[in-house]
Amino acid sequence: FKMVTLNGLFLKEWELYDEALSANVYINVPVAKHHGLSKLTLALKNVMGIMGGNRGYIHRNLDTALADVNAPLKIHLNIIDATRILTAHGPQGGNISDVKVINKVVVSTDIVAADSFETTLFGMKPADIPVTVAAHRRGLGEMNLDRIKMVRV
Predict the structure, then answer these.
(1) For the segment 32-77, what is each residue's pLDDT rounded down to a tens digit?
(2) Is the pLDDT of residue 94 over 80?
């Protein structure tokens, strides 16, 4: 881990996994699921995986902290696995009835756009997810579904 100056709104600096910062290509591959605090775990929240230190601290202002951590990263591709989504009781789950099979994978170079579309698979809107809103306000990507070009294959 390496201490990184974030100059964020909540986090001024944080220990991040050095290889994620220095990689030639960074591919973010989260599994779409419900989360009790952030509502959903998608691409923006998955970046918590590169954080060191006391990650519990960021839960005081989770949406802003995640935008702070995502801001300096250059994620080349986000591939969100939504083949089976956890619709409730996340992140731990606990009941197979909380799992819905939808057999979708969302791929985007725009992390906010990827998360924005994914919210619709849970019957939500991008504006329902505070981290999506925070990241969009920081200029990290597009959350307006009308402005996102989607190709379905």
Answers:
(1) 999 988 999 999 999 999 999 999 999 999 999 999 999 999 999 9
(2) no
Buried b (16+ CB within 10 A) or exposed e, 28-62: bebebbbbeebbbbbbbbbbbebbeeeeeebeebb
Handedness of CA 45, 130, 101, 94 (dihedral sign): positive
Q: From CA 150, how far away is CA 86, in angstroms rounded?
A: 23
Q: Tell me, what's the pLDDT at 150?
A: 87
By C-alpha distance, which of 147, 144, 125, 10 is closest to 71?
Answer: 10
DSSP assignment of 104-138, as one string? EEEEES-HHHHHHHHHHHTT--GGG-HHHHHHHHT
- Pairing between strand 39-41 and 99-108? unpaired
